[in-house]
Amino acid sequence: MTTRGSKVERRSVSEQPHELKYEAKKTGTTTAKVEAAKKSTGSNQRSAVEKKLNK
Questions:
Q1: Domain assignment of residue 17, yes or no
Q2: Is residue 1 domain-resident?
Q3: pTM for the full model?
Q4: Any idea what DSSP says for residue 18?
Q5: How do residues 4-21 score in pLDDT, each as one tens digit?
Q6: Residue 19 sits in which domain range?
């Protein structure tokens, strides 16, 4: 039995437009701010990006 997506994929935010849009909607920001948060943290880890956006 397989599962949808791997744990690695769920823990990160890729550059794909639908993922940026999802993260922006989830945190109440814009896709540009999500991209900026990814760049400033130097990571695509979802927890790090969300922490940066919630400050």
A1: yes
A2: no
A3: 0.81
A4: H
A5: 667 777 889 999 999 999
A6: 13-53
